Automatic annotation (TrEMBL):
Cofactor: pyridoxal 5'-phosphate
GO cellular component: cytosol
Protein name: LtaA
Keyword Plastid in annotation: no
Record flagged with keyword Lipoprotein: no
UniProt organism field: Gossypium arboreum
Family: Belongs to the threonine aldolase family.
Amino acid sequence: MVTKTVDLRSDTVTKPTEAMRAAMATAEVDDDVLGADPTAARLESEVAKIMGKEAGLFVASGTMGNLISVLVHCDIRGSEVILGDNCHIHIYENGGISTIGGVHPRPVKNNDDGTMDIGLIEAAIRDPRGEIVYPTTRLICLENSHANTGGRCLSAEYTDKVGELAKKHGLKLHIDGARIFNASVALGVPVNRLVQAADSVSVCLSKGLGAPVGSVIVGSKSFISKARRLRKTLGGGMRQLGFICAAAFVALKENVAKLEGDHKKAKVLAEGLNQIKGLRVNVAAVETNIIFFDIVEGSKITAEKLYKKLEEHGVLVMLEGPLSKL
């Protein structure tokens, strides 16, 4: 009989802490669609300051944040965005940049460390002389940390090089920073330095930081002004938003310091799993809070059977598949 559950599915399954619930109960609120909610404004300003950008905007999810950011930068239908073939925007966001925004994705191979080769990015930029037949490249997207490669971290130096390439060709750079704080802690680099080259960043507060809901996108004042209108268009404008932002503010203030401990625990778990006969983990690739492990070919147990057996013992994990990286 299971008396306690160990939930290792994702950092998205956390429950609000007592401090978050207390902050939600006492939050000062007003109508945020009218731009009047003081708690939302305080959170947006704080995240923008931490990221080294001019302004911020709270959105319901990282997917909404990425979609809005892409649509602001690619405001002409038929624009093209260069992104990784294994990135979250391309794989797990329902094709929104295309179905809603009319933006064409130009995928470039993601390396095992989450990067894309600079040369391949540059080669993917459309020649303006072919605009009569090609989409127009307007944006490059990066993801840091990179979920599908196991939470690998992109260095500031790499991001700078991509930023320089973008500027050289008159393009914008967006970073999907769903777990940017994890990358910052793992690399020992201030988060504002990691996103210095970016024109916009989507920062999730409900993953590693444990808030119940929400992301903040940051960028220039003009970018956020356009983003605010798009948020309303997409049905993301909320009225008394402050009670949600209050919980996110607690997560931002209290939980960044806990990420290093999360990473250490993930490393210990990865090392232990790798010692179990029939399992294989690339321990060196475990840089943050995500672990992928494989069933060795020829093992007597399948992934599905192991999943069910762990569940019977109160240990919850995710099988790799369509819902495993959300």
